[in-house]
Design goal:
Helices cover about 65% and strands about 0% of the residues. By secondary structure, the chain is mostly helical. The protein starts with 8 loop residues before the first helix and ends in an 8-residue tail after the last helix.
C-alpha cells in the first residue's frame, strides 16, 4: 500500500500545535504535590474540579459525596474525550489512530468482563462499564453485563472481530477462564493493528513510531514475565507463548535470559541493566504492574516537545495521558488505604 501523506505542511503544524496545547493543560508536579496532601477522595475531587482541566468532566459533581469508583470513571472519561478530540485529525495525519484507541478500549472492557466473571462477580461489570463509550463501539456493553459464563460472552461478541480470537480459548480445566492466554491473544491483535498502521506512514515518522511503540511492547513483555514468574511460577515455554510480538529495545537474547531466569527478582536485575530499564528511576522499578507506562514515558515526553511528525506527537500525548490517569488513580487508591504521601509518591511517575 502506498504510504499515506499529510494534505499540507499547514495541517501538520495545526496538529502539532493542538496536541502540544492539550499537553500544556496536563497536571504539573505542583498539582501532584497538592493531590498527595489530600486526605480524602472528596478533597481529590475538589482539587481536580476547581484547579485543573478535569473541570470539564467534574463540573456537575458534588465533590463531598462522590464515590471513588465514580471519580475514577470520570477521570478516564476525560482522557477518552481528549483522545476523541485528537481522533478528528485522522484524515489529516494519514493514519487511523482512532482505530487503535478504540480497539484498545474494547479489549480493556472484554478483559474487565472476564475478570469479574473469573472472580465470581460477573454482575459487577455492569457498574464498571463506561457507558459514555457505548455510542463509539460495536460492543454490546449492556448484553456483556448480563453474561455469566465464557460461552455467553462469546455469543455477545459474535458480531465482532474478537469472537474468533476468543473462541479457541474456551475454558478447559474445571471451567477456569484462561485469562493470561486471552489477554495475550487480544493484545497481540492490538499490537499487530498498530504495526500495520505504522507501516503505512512515511519512513522518518515510521522509525520514530516504531521505537516509541516498540518500547511499550518491550515493557509489557517484561511485566508479563515478572507477573508469570512471581505469581504463577510459570514455565519458560508457557511464558514464551504469552509474549507480544514487535518489541524494539530489548534484544531476543535479553528477553530469553529473562524468560529463563530462576526468579522474578532475577528478571528485575536483568531489566535494570538494560537501557530501557535505566530510563526508570530506581525507586520506581519495583512497580511491575505498570512498567508499560513508566518505561516509554521519557521517550514520549521528548517526542511531544521535539518531534516534527504529528502522529508521533499524538501518540506521545496518548502515552503521557495514560501515565497521568494512572498517577491520579494511584493517589486515590493510596488515600483509600490510608497511605502517607511518602508511601504514595514512589508509585507515581509525574510527581518525581
Amino acid at each position: 500500500m502506498e504510504n499515506l501523506k499529510f494534505t499540507s505542511p499547514f495541517s501538520a503544524n495545526v496538529i502539532l500545535a493542538k496536541a502540544r496545547a492539550m499537553y500544556g493543560n496536563s497536571l504539573k508536579v505542583k498539582d501532584f504535590n497538592e493531590l498527595l496532601h489530600c486526605h480524602s477522595v472528596s478533597e481529590v475531587a475538589a482539587y481536580l474540579k476547581n484547579s485543573t482541566a478535569y473541570a470539564s468532566v467534574l463540573a456537575e459533581i458534588n465533590e463531598s459525596t462522590i464515590h471513588r469508583g465514580h471519580l475514577e470513571m470520570l477521570i478516564r472519561r476525560k482522557a477518552f474525550n481528549d483522545y476523541a478530540a485528537l481522533g478528528r485529525y485522522d484524515i489529516m495525519i494519514g493514519m487511523n489512530l482512532s482505530l487503535y484507541l478504540l480497539q484498545r478500549i474494547e479489549i480493556e472492557q472484554i478483559i474487565a468482563c472476564l475478570r469479574y466473571m473469573s472472580a465470581g462477580h460477573a454482575s459487577e461489570f455492569f457498574f464498571s462499564m463506561p457507558m459514555y463509550f457505548a455510542s463509539h463501539t460495536r460492543l454490546d456493553l449492556p448484553k456483556m453485563s448480563h453474561c455469566a459464563s465464557f460461552a455467553e460472552l462469546l455469543e455477545a461478541l459474535a458480531h465482532t472481530k474478537y469472537h474468533d480470537v476468543l473462541a479457541p480459548l474456551a475454558p478447559k480445566e474445571e471451567g477456569r477462564i484462561r485469562l493470561t492466554e486471552i489477554e495475550n491473544a487480544l493484545y497481540t491483535q492490538l499490537t499487530n493493528t498498530m504495526y500495520s498502521l505504522i507501516a503505512q506512514t512515511p519512513r522518518g515518522m515510521r522509525e520514530e513510531l516504531t521505537n516509541l511503540f516498540g518500547a511499550q511492547v518491550d515493557a509489557q513483555n517484561v511485566t508479563r514475565i515478572l507477573r508469570l514468574k512471581r505469581y504463577f511460577q510459570a514455565k519458560p515455554a508457557f511464558i514464551r507463548e504469552n509474549l507480544l510480538p514487535g518489541g524494539r529495545c530489548l534484544s531476543p537474547k535479553v528477553i530469553d535470559s529473562m524468560v529463563e531466569a530462576p526468579t522474578a527478582d532475577a528478571v528485575l536485575d536483568i531489566f535494570r541493566s538494560t537501557a530501557l530499564g535505566r530510563r526508570i528511576p530506581p525507586d520506581q522499578r519495583e512497580f511491575i504492574h505498570d512498567l508499560d507506562h513508566r518505561a516509554p514515558y521519557f521517550n514520549a515526553r521528548k517526542h511531544i516537545h521535539y518531534s516534527i511528525h504529528p502522529l508521533v506527537v499524538l501518540l506521545s500525548y496518548v502515552m503521557l495521558t495514560d501515565v497521568e490517569v494512572d498517577d491520579i488513580i494511584n493517589i486515590i487508591e493510596g488515600i483509600r488505604y490510608g497511605l502517607d504521601p511518602d508511601q504514595i509518591r514512589p508509585m507515581l511517575v509525574l510527581a518525581n
